[in-house]
Amino acid sequence: MPLDPQARAMLDAMAAMPSPDFSTLRAADYRAALAAMPGFAPGDAVAAQQDLTLDGPAGPLQARLYRPDAPSEGQGNVALPLVIFFHGGGFVLCGLDSHDNICRSLARRSGALVLSVDYRLAPEARFPAAADDAVAAVRWAAAHAAQLGADPSRLAVAGDSAGGNLAAVVCQQLRGSGIALRHQLLLYPWVDCSDAAAGSASYRECAQGYFLSVAELAWYRAQYLATPADAGDVRASPLHQRDLRGLPPATIITAEFDPLRDQGEAYGEALQRAGGNAAVRRWPGQIHGFASMQGVMDAASHVLDAAAAALRQAFGASSRQEAA
């Protein structure tokens, strides 16, 4: 399918702007430049949101809890499903605010609580800091589910791009831990930080000009990994995990014009070969990061509808009203 016209218009606008020089770019400067850019639409309204602090492996982590609906009269504080969400940004950029719209929309449309986690970023905190924080956050959420108003038997993880990596890593690392995750929702995930990824067709076909470039991925990797050998660690490249048995069911959504497309789909196929329930859907005509682009891309709302439907099904509710 050809590139979505709305994606084409956004890429054309970006092409008129100066491109970062990844040979000299500093993380702090890139963050500042992105912070100065106008944001996307704010996402769906939710009943409440609350900033929290949770226990991390190297100190407190900031998080934000979204409640989709106010309890109905006489219903009381019914325990809702809980989705622990990890934002994208190449392990270097973004945070609670940048992904506020995705989390609000997922909460509202799935009928679940969403806990967005502000894990440590590279290069200030290199691998495996983000992975360690993600695992610790899910352990904390499971232990404090009642305090959050959540049902500890209905937990899931979700993330986009680098956050999809962390969600996949969490499922692998917590396998057999007693924390029963119902689902993993991976939006255009980055699951292979190794040089092997460069051999994929999507790396070649979408190397530049489609929002996320191969040069940018290399820069992220250089910021995140402490040594090149770290790329082979399954906590950095969950696609390299040889034993994928017994992992939670997965929904993996990729974008047609994304260098990460093939590795996300390969991870879904690997889960299927291991006997897992993995639904893989390639979004036609779209680019990396499109779920965040609410108000600019119609596809952002459509993909969030699909993601929320997968979560509702995983939690055993066929509609938002049933979930709430």
UniProtKB/TrEMBL annotation:
Gene Ontology MF: a single term: hydrolase activity
Keywords of the record: Hydrolase
Keyword Transcription regulation: no
SUPFAM superfamilies reported for this sequence: alpha/beta-Hydrolases
Entry EC number(s): 3.1.1.-
Catalytic residues as annotated in Swiss-Prot or TrEMBL: 161
Coiled-coil portions: none
Gene3D superfamilies assigned: alpha/beta hydrolase
Annotated Alpha/beta hydrolase fold-3 domain residues: 83-291
Keyword Hydrolase listed: yes
Sequence similarity: Belongs to the 'GDXG' lipolytic enzyme family.
Protein name listed in UniProt: Acetyl esterase
